[in-house]
Amino acid sequence: MTAARISLQVLLLLTSLVLTLLILLHKGRGGGLSDMFGGGSASSLGSSGVAERNLNRFTIGIGLVWVVVVVLLGVLDRFAA
User: Total structural domains in the chain?
Assistant: First the structure.
């Protein structure tokens, strides 16, 4: 195993954990599983508009890093000798 592959796998693990945490931090929009567990009842509580937008941006950024790492690992697997 090469150092690049190991570092990409570690980065994939870290971004997966952070992405899961960020997705769980998002406010429920209602009408789905969030209502079943009580997430839709607290509409006035939660983050403000700016904080929610920043959370969205950060989640999208981490998601893009995750996709790039998955693609790079696939390329390494494909062209490995």
Answer: 1
In our burial notation (b when 16+ CB lie closer than 10 A, e otherwise), range 36-51 reads eeebbeeeeeeeeeee
Per DSSP, 39 falls in state T
| 80 vs 74: CA distance, rounded Å | 10
The DSSP 8-state label assigned to residue 50 in this structure reads H
- Rounded CA gap, 12 and 22, in Å? 15
| CA–CA distance, 1 with 10 (Å, rounded to integer) | 13
Note down the domain range covering 65.
Answer: 3-79
* Threshold 0.90, pTM exceeds: no
- Judged by average pLDDT, the poorest of 15-19, 21-25, 29-33 is 29-33
